[in-house]
Specification:
By secondary structure, the protein is mostly helical. 74% of the residues lie in helices and 4% in strands. The protein has 6 helices and 2 strands, in the order αββααααα. α1 runs antiparallel to α2, α1 packs parallel to α3 and α4 packs parallel to α6. 33% of the residues are buried. The model has no long low-confidence stretch (mean pLDDT 91). It comes from Oceanobacillus jeddahense.
Length: 192
């Protein structure tokens, strides 16, 4: 349990707190932000999401810089990302800030890649995320953070940055999913 793995586990532990803040109708008030309204609970949840997403970058940086890359980390880090992103996207659908069809495609890709990783793990192979997957994750995290903040600060300009980033992340999600399966198809082909 090195520092990067502890950060990954801390990200997983932040998810329930994030979900409670987004799901429970706290009466903490709200702020007018341009043409939108931002509930204080959603603001706090967004901060927790941003901190959790930040741990993804920090744990990867420390793991590479100090040669602390482990098979546990290669497995848990993408899983933590998928749990965090899936929870956030489903909650964004619930509060009507993200279209369900986009979320279904994104989560389906995540489940398909997780299935491929499980097959690989059964063969003793650990599949790390590639550069396209990291770009996909970055665009998803940005889109989700802005949508959780009800498009702040872009709501002042009436510019739908959050939803544009969500559609961009959808494109990267599909491309990276196809890329992941093409590069790792041998795992499915050669599995027993």
């Amino acid at each position: 349990m090195n520092l990067p793995n502890k950060l990954t586990f801390s990200r997983i532990l932040m998810i329930p707190l994030f979900m409670v803040l987004m799901s429970v109708p706290f009466s903490w008030g709200s702020w007018d932000i341009g043409n939108a309204e931002l509930p204080v609970a959603h603001f706090v949840a967004a901060l927790i999401f941003i901190i959790a997403a930040g741990t993804d970058w920090v744990d990867g940086y420390y793991a590479r810089k100090y040669n602390l890359v482990t098979n546990l980390g290669k497995f848990m880090d993408p899983l933590a990302d998928k749990l965090l992103v899936s929870a956030a996207l489903i909650l964004l659908v619930e509060i009507e800030l993200a279209p369900a069809w986009v979320v279904i495609i994104i989560i389906s890709r995540e489940l398909a890649v997780t299935g491929l990783r499980l097959v690989a793990a059964g063969e003793g192979i650990v599949l790390a995320a590639g550069s396209m997957g990291k770009l996909k994750t970055a665009t998803q995290m940005i889109a989700i953070a802005v949508l959780l903040l009800h498009n702040f600060p872009f709501s002042y300009m009436d510019f739908p940055f959050g939803i544009i980033m969500l559609y961009l992340s959808l494109v990267f999600t599909i491309i990276s999913g196809v890329d992941y399966f093409v590069k790792n198809w041998h795992v499915m082909r050669d599995s027993k």
